[in-house]
Design brief:
17 strands, 7 helices, five-stranded parallel beta sheet
């Protein structure tokens, strides 16, 4: 008895984020985690630890290697974790990424996140530029599920690339979107786009 407000100085070098959070919950004092070089566990647990570090109830976190155990993860959660540490975030366990295409592209494009290249990606966008969709498709060998998209925009070449990838199976869920083509578009190109979707094609 009598423990509740002590400062705690850890000696661990590798630590599960859930254990660090539990320790932080036991005391109103500051938990000094400066010795920690590797955090493990779910991204949510790691983000909780880093948020506590930002709030000042934990100290010493900033440059750890983080190895997450998630199989499915929201891209914005992964990006938040990446922003918290200058160390690498190892995401090798991830098989499915969800969220906006922009957030997913940010995760794939980050030099601070390792282990991504073959995940299935389910995006939540309703309106999307074809270039953004194509960039995402190029980042992963997994299927990009774009079933939420109701409007796709861009130049004919970019739109054609997206729909061709849908036909090839590397993108899924396209087929009934409204299409807004920018730039000069020929009648033949409009007809090609109309063949890809039951939605209205505006050129």
């Amino acid at each position: 008895s009598g423990l509740a407000n002590e400062a705690v100085t850890l000696s661990d070098t590798s630590l599960a984020a859930s254990v660090l959070n539990t320790t932080n919950g036991y005391t109103t004092g500051v938990v000094n985690a400066a010795t920690v070089t590797t955090l493990t566990g779910t991204a949510a647990d790691a983000n909780t630890a880093y948020a506590a570090n930002a709030a000042g109830t934990i100290s010493g976190l900033a440059n750890e290697t983080v190895t997450i155990s998630d199989q499915t993860i929201a891209a914005d959660v992964l990006n938040t974790l990446d922003d918290y540490t200058s160390g690498p975030v190892n995401a090798h366990t991830v098989t499915t990424i969800t969220g906006t295409a922009a957030d997913a592209n940010t995760a794939y494009g980050s030099a601070g996140i390792a282990g991504l290249d073959s995940e299935a990606v389910t995006i939540s966008d309703t309106t999307l530029a074809a270039t953004v969709l194509n960039n995402l498709n190029a980042y992963t060998t997994g299927v990009v599920n774009a079933a939420s998209v109701t409007t796709i925009t861009g130049a004919y070449a970019d739109l054609n690339t997206s729909f061709a990838a849908n036909a090839a199976g590397t993108i899924s869920g396209l087929g009934n979107e409204a299409v807004t083509a920018s730039g000069t578009t020929t009648v033949a190109q409009v007809n090609t786009l109309s063949g890809y979707t039951t939605g209205i094609v505006t050129a």
